[in-house]
Write a structure and sequence with these properties.
This protein is of the alpha+beta class. The chain contains 12 helices and 56 strands.
């Protein structure tokens, strides 16, 4: 089903039919306003192409002026102003077509039929190759882009990438020819190509609600301000009441924030990472106090205490841009009368500079008091402000300004916010009327201030102006102290759109306008060729990312530029705590990492959501974001003098969860063994499985593209021989085993995997191998069901070592297809030493959506056919998996023999070729820290580029 999307038309042919429950439609006018034309179910709407000269004809107008509702009534649309249709709700069926090719921009596109689940290729040709930039594929929920290499090219759409809709365009408006292309979605068939306008910003109202519905009874008493954190919008009324938080997707009130000792008579603001600032209102001689929190449910702590001796009130308008855990700028605007001042603080490396700078602006005359003062905001080093009654919009650093809009005297231009997004900078101005009794509406302006040379003209006619519209009003009565409002700009929760939230006391309106950018990228992107995935280990990368969103952004962009499609970010390291929100286990506070010559701890002091930062940034630049999850682990006993940490060390009652090892001294719990560093949990323990499934359920609540289970296995060849496992094994074989015979009948501590042969193994050894494989298989099924029940869009995968011959018996997993029988594989005769005919039934590949295999051969064994070469690992995996699931193989480029000292760029480049062409699903590399340490960026990009050339041939 379709999500919200916009199609910007330039001589297109589209026909909508049988639109059920579509709700409100909006047409975008070419002056970027909106005509709302339908607030009930629509039965039919018809679009037809313009004639060749662009004129309208009676037979085939650009848009039929009469639209029929399902109740039989009709509505008339002003055709002369329509540029686009915005559909904010699901659509059951869109138009279909037939025949061959389409020249985008021509009068009649044409299409080709196809079937869902089959791979297709788009062929394009550029008519005018001058200033060729990017080829953009726009989806119903976003876009991605590819370099236009020449005048002709191909984009492969594998079966796994069949999607709702893709639109092809050129930023320089040159024609693009496409052939043989169709896409299908659930209950949707849609074929076609849309020419996207060069106006990169398209907005539509997401929702609007009355402040009365949130409990406001006296509009004249409030001075509202806004902040955004996670999925919530925080509203501070500035009247001393506790700020409320609402669901930012719907506008519905959720509750009141935890205010603690903070005084919310001033205002709120939020930084780029979701940290919230809450200020009191200081008169000209009292202390300004600004509190900080990251969560609506955690009481804030005092962050700034400023001894205000300016004889100017301050606190009614604060602003922060950047990340308080990295680099940020905080501003607080002074109120009048006759003020030209704001106070500024800076944050460097997460450390607040407590020295406040009092700045007097130069350009305007003084602004006024609480109801009319300025809000000074910053983005990209520039500062913007506007206020009543001057109503000029100023850029202080660039020394530019926009003259007042028409009828400015009746409006207060004091609500501003600015935000960098998708390589551009955007400025929002919310203009609030003083006289709602005159039926005046608040007005939202959004500007692209990336190129400040366009910041000229007037507020409502600047070349930088991208959006200009009234917002709904819920009040026409006079309001004392009217004209008070706020606006804040934030990427949407999934990072693909830009949301602008507004509130004011004059019209009693609170709402959101959503912007789809031509350069914004959906997390659900179309991938050229096979997937390319890079692993981001939690421990090794912790010093770079634990407290720095800017470092995350820096490196994810490098990953994208190198040609990767996916990141796999580790959010549950082996010590068992997590880097995502859950109530079932603690958050990671410190992790061990290798420094210049020894191991030490790195501490996390940041409070922002670690995983969410990767999701927001990754999705905003077109990377799919997957979480890596160490499964059956519970704590670490560090062998290098750092002590211990994790759940099983904090809670002694969890000792029974820990694996029991068959040793020469008998069955011993790992907690009593110093040679077992990572303490594994027993995968056969029901309580352990329930605990892990709860964690996976919370992880699946995130807007992830995938979850990969790591260490979803037993610890080693000798585990688990606990009483729990014994009881379950007895049920499995239908026999009772005496305690005196256990665990000798299943495991021999004197035998290793390399000792497995026809003789010398315990009585029930093969049944024990099958039982362990069944235990992991059955858990995989439960995990898949759990994840899908929470978020059906998230794919569940696993990471395994590619050495099937020894890994399977070693750790008790069968990552093959259930149709592969190792006991009957005559090419691998030795497998029958440990696999019986029942073993094949517990191959779990078919219960996953994707599989990563570590083809961890040495740098000298890139190519080959044997099991211990990268290419051989990936080739042989096809025999085990048998198309049950797509898989991606690849090397460890830091720990495997020959890679540990760097200097293996050629081997890295060749590894892409060896693995991606031998794997059905793509290429996988471990780990990002090695890429950075040995500077393998160009080696990887060369390998990926070489592969993509073969895709486009």
């Amino acid at each position: 089903m379709f999500k919200r999307f916009s199609l910007i038309f330039s001589a297109l042919f589209v026909a909508f039919a049988a639109l059920a429950d579509t709700g409100m439609f909006y047409f975008q006018r070419n002056d970027f306003g909106y005509n709302s034309f339908c607030d009930t179910t629509v039965e039919s709407i018809t679009f037809s192409p313009k004639s060749a000269d662009g004129s309208q004809t009676a037979e085939s107008g650009y848009l039929s002026s009469t639209v029929t509702r399902s109740d039989g009534s009709t509505v008339t649309v002003d055709l002369s102003k329509i540029d686009a249709v915005v559909i904010p709700h699901d659509v059951n069926e869109l138009w279909t077509g037939a025949t061959s090719a389409v020249n985008v921009g021509a009068a009649e596109p044409a299409f080709a039929d196809a079937t869902e689940g089959v791979s297709y290729t788009v062929k394009y040709s550029v008519t005018d190759k001058s200033d060729v930039g990017k080829l953009y594929l726009y989806r119903a929920d976003g876009s991605t882009s590819f370099d236009v290499v020449g005048q002709e090219g191909y984009i492969s759409l594998p079966a796994s990438s069949v999607c709702d809709t893709i639109c092809i365009s050129r930023r320089d408006a040159a024609a693009i020819k496409a052939e043989g292309f169709i896409v299908k979605g659930e209950n949707v068939t849609l074929n076609g190509f849309y020419n996207i306008s060069d106006k990169a910003l398209t907005g539509f109202p997401a929702y609007s609600v009355s402040l009365a519905s949130l409990g406001v009874t006296d509009a004249s008493a409030i001075h509202p301000s806004l902040a955004v954190t996670g999925g919530y919008l925080v509203v501070d009324y500035g009247d001393g009441s506790v700020p409320v938080y609402i669901d930012r997707a719907s506008g519905n009130k959720v509750g009141e924030i935890a205010l603690g000792d903070a005084d919310a008579k001033g205002s709120v603001a939020s930084d780029d990472a979701g940290n919230i600032l809450i200020s009191n209102y200081s008169d000209g001689a009292s202390t300004l106090k600004i509190y900080r929190t990251y969560s609506v449910t955690e009481a804030p702590t005092l962050y700034i205490s400023y001894d205000n001796k300016l004889n100017l009130p301050v606190g009614s308008r604060i602003h922060v841009r950047g990340n308080l855990d990295g680099f940020a700028v905080i501003t607080a605007t002074c109120d009048g009368p006759y003020s030209q001042h704001y106070i500024r603080w800076t944050v460097n490396g997460g450390v607040l500079n407590t020295h406040a700078q009092v700045i007097q602006v130069n350009s305007p005359s003084q602004w006024s008091g609480l109801s009319s003062n300025a809000k000074v905001v910053t983005v990209g080093g520039d500062y913007f402000y506007s206020y009543y009654s001057n109503d000029t919009l100023y850029s202080d650093i660039a020394a530019r300004k926009l003259s007042p809009q028409t009828d400015a005297g009746n409006f207060n231009n004091a609500a501003l916010d600015a935000r960098a997004f998708s390589s551009s900078r955007y400025l929002a101005l919310y203009s609030v009327p003083y006289f709602p009794e005159w039926s005046l509406q608040s007005h939202l302006y959004v500007y692209d201030v990336t190129d400040m040379t366009k910041f000229t003209g007037s507020v409502n006619s600047s070349a930088a102006l991208m959006y200009n519209a009234d917002v709904p009003s819920y009040n026409t009565a006079s309001v004392g102290n009217a004209g008070r409002g706020d606006v804040t700009v934030s990427p949407s929760v999934d990072g693909s759109d830009l949301d602008v939230y507004y509130v004011d006391n004059s019209t009693m309106s609170l709402g959101c306008t959503r912007f789809r950018l031509a350069t914004s990228i959906s997390p659900d992107t179309v991938i050229v060729g096979k997937s390319r995935l890079i692993w981001i280990d939690a421990c090794a990368n912790f010093p770079d990312y634990a407290n720095s969103i800017s470092n995350i952004r820096r490196d994810l962009q490098k990953i994208k530029d190198a040609g990767f499609t996916d990141i796999v970010v580790d959010v549950r390291p082996t010590m068992g705590d997590v880097l995502f929100k859950t109530g079932f286990v603690d958050q990671v506070k410190k992790l061990d990492y290798w420094g210049s010559s020894s191991y030490s701890y790195y501490y996390r002091t940041a409070t922002w959501d670690y995983l969410q930062a990767f999701i927001d940034i990754g999705h905003s630049i077109g990377l799919r974001v997957n979480a890596a999850f160490n499964t059956f682990v519970g704590g670490n006993l560090y062998p290098y003098g750092l002590g211990q940490q994790g759940l099983v060390f904090r809670d002694s009652s969890k000792k029974d969860w820990v694996s029991v090892v068959n040793t020469s001294s008998g069955a011993v719990n790992e907690m009593n063994l110093t040679d077992y560093d990572t303490k594994f949990l027993n995968a056969a323990n029901d309580d352990v499985q329930a605990f892990i499934l709860n964690l996976l359920g919370d992880l699946a609540k995130y807007d992830l593209d995938g979850i990969f289970l790591d260490r979803c296995r037993f610890d080693d060849f000798y585990t688990d021989v606990s009483a729990t496992s014994k009881a379950k094994f007895e049920t499995f074989i239908g026999k009772t085993i005496s305690d005196s015979d256990w665990p000798g009948v299943v495991s021999n501590p004197a035998k290793s995997v390399s000792d497995i042969s026809w003789s010398g193994m315990p009585t029930y050894f093969k049944q024990w191998m099958a039982f362990r494989a069944k235990t992991i298989h059955d858990f995989i099924v439960k995990a898949h069901d759990k994840v899908k029940s929470v978020n059906s869009k998230v794919r569940l995968g696993a990471y395994v070592g590619a050495w099937y011959s020894t890994l399977s018996p070693e750790v008790g997993i069968n990552w093959a297809s259930s149709s592969y029988d190792p006991s009957n594989d005559y090419n691998n005769y030795s497998y029958r030493y440990w696999a019986n005919s029942d073993y094949k039934n517990y191959g779990y590949a078919g219960n996953l959506d994707f599989l990563l295999i570590g083809a961890y051969a040495s740098s000298g064994n890139v190519y080959g056919t044997d099991e211990w070469s990268m290419q051989g690992f990936c080739t042989r995996a096809a025999n085990y998996i048998k198309d049950a699931v797509p898989y991606a193989g690849g090397p460890d480029i830091g720990n495997s023999s020959g890679f540990e000292n760097g200097g293996q760029g050629t081997a890295v480049t060749n590894s892409v070729d060896a693995c991606i062409n031998a794997s059905t699903g793509g290429y996988f590399v471990f780990d990002l820290t090695h890429v950075k340490k040995f500077n393998y960026w160009s080696a990887l990009k060369t390998g990926i580029d070489n592969y993509l050339k073969t895709v486009n041939q």
